[in-house]
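User: Can you write out an input/output pair for a complex, sequences first and structure second?

Assistant: Here is one pair. Inputs:
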Amino acid sequence: MEAPPPPQPAASAEQPAPAAASSQPPEPTQTPSPSPSPSPAPDPAQPPPVSAPPPPSAAPSAAQNPPQLQPQSLPPSQSQPPPPQQQSQPQQPIQQPRPPLVRNRPPAPFPHFSNHLPSSAPPSSSASASASSAAPAPSPSPSAASQRGGLAIGVPAHSSHLPRAQQPVATYSSIGASPAFNQPFTPLPRMTEQSSAANAQVRQPIQGIQNIGMIGSLSTTTQIRPGGVTGPPQQRLVQPTSRAASPSTNQTLGSQKFPNSGLIRGPSMVSSGSISSVPQQSLVSSQGKQMPASSSSFRPQAKPNVLQQRPHSLQQTQQPPSAASHQQQIPTSQQQQQQKQQQFQMQLQQQQQQPQFHQQHSSPRQTQEYYNQQNLQLRNQPQLLQQQPARPLGPATTKPNPPTLVHTNVAQPAVTHPVVGTDAAESGDHILGKRSLRELVSQIDPSEKLDSEVEDVLVEIAEDFVESVATFACSLAKHRKSTTLEAKDILLHVERNWNMMLPGYGGDEIKCYKKQFTNDIHKERLAVIKKSMAATGDTANPKNASGGPAAASSKSHAQKAPPIGSPKA
Amino acid sequence: MHNSASAGPPAKPRVGSSQVSEASLKRKRGVFQKDLQHMMYGFGDDPNPLPETVSLVEDIVVEYITDMVHKAQNIASKRGRLLTEDFLYLVRKDPPKLHRCTELLSMHEELKLARKAFDVNEETLATAD
């Protein structure tokens, strides 16, 4: 119940948030927020209209709001509990439950959040009478949340709402009242301190939206963090990640890496959240078992954190120095970013990866995973989309492959399985492996040897060829009004555009001959020329043997016009 | 003479047939199967080659003939009807093929003359008798 109302007001609040000064207390932010979206304020039962405006603005505002909202929400919450509540009640009774959640800002799916909120709402609802209003809100808020979660797993919207929603005090009161939130709230003091720092760091990456491909890393880290996730359920996605990292590390792993990793993760989580709001929800559901009901709301947020931190935790165990994990974390985010760009930068990546593969022991697995991902991206874009949601689930099932490579190797594909092999085996995932390439060359010339660069280029050419042919063949199949790619599509394209005859796959189809289209006028002229040539030939042969051809041609040309006018026999 | 250059293509749909569309959709398989088996054996293959191999070679042959006829038709349409010279023109750049074609055509002419002479002889013998 509390969750739905808070998301809506938060969404609306987000819009004005960027406009509002960062230092403004929640009250002022609230007033502007309700104004843009009057629907939620007067009618908690009208969440749909509210959700509509917030989602579009949620993305841009979410990134900006969270950093601004948290510092604002924390201090004002303590000093202005009653006024926000009063305002919220008449304007947005739904928002009252929000304040308790503001603190913990889990970036997570609103449904979970909303489910969790009602449980915690009762204690906080005492402060505000929005409990009743919150009831109708739950349904719309999850939808709104999911809509807003596009960019940041929905949490920023929450966070933005809560501070504006005005009841920072209510949060604290609810904190004490609801044991469920105990864990989340404990880290609050730390988070408030770090929030400003984290926000500053997180903002830029979030706005850049370059970490779209970071879902994979997020998934890996989320699993590690059951404790950390539960901590700050209501906090913003970005901040909670950093926060979750810090408290979780202190609590669970006790390593200092996570705060750094959390900061780094924040942006990635935000981006990943935007991409996979749905998968996050799935993650949340999967992690629900791990976390207690109170922390269920944090799941969406926690997952990315856990996923991200998981490889790091593994790395930490393997590599005590935190600096190493640090570097690894950075590459992970970079790798994720590059995953998105793989299709455009395949060449660069391949070249970079190959020299790196030999350098590191874990490279074979990573490269293979990278190749798997590349292949999946190459061959099937829909598969790629499926991959992304699957990646968050990957860590739950697999393997610890810490991204040791600094370059764009993706070390955490969820779907791929670790196959240790030489570079030939890795390239086997590609269309043309190095080994098969060498075999082909040996068929041409047994003593021929290719340079590594040449092999790379040939592999790349092969991949591009297959991709282009498959793409065009699919468009041909589509033109054929068929959903199945058949051999004749590929045959037609390759035969027409590549001038390659492939016997044996033609089936029972006969090539139709298109008779050359000739104009009637053209035929007439040709007939006239023939006649004139024949006539001149008969007459000119006995007379002009040497100049026959020239005379005939000239006469034929000269006679071309007259015959048209006066037909010659 | 016209048949020497192009081994009659029974696979092609009969022009003028009402079932041209149906015939064009399906191409008869195994049109040259028996002859091709012997030819493949003559070129070094097993006396009984695999059916898949024979069908593949037949696909290659049919595709080659089809392509040649289409090109010849394009050339001959300017002149009128299709002649043997059109096919010779198409293989002009391939000396072995061109020589083989001309050899086959000349042999065909000789055989025709021989048959004619044989018939004449038969007649003279018959008349003589």
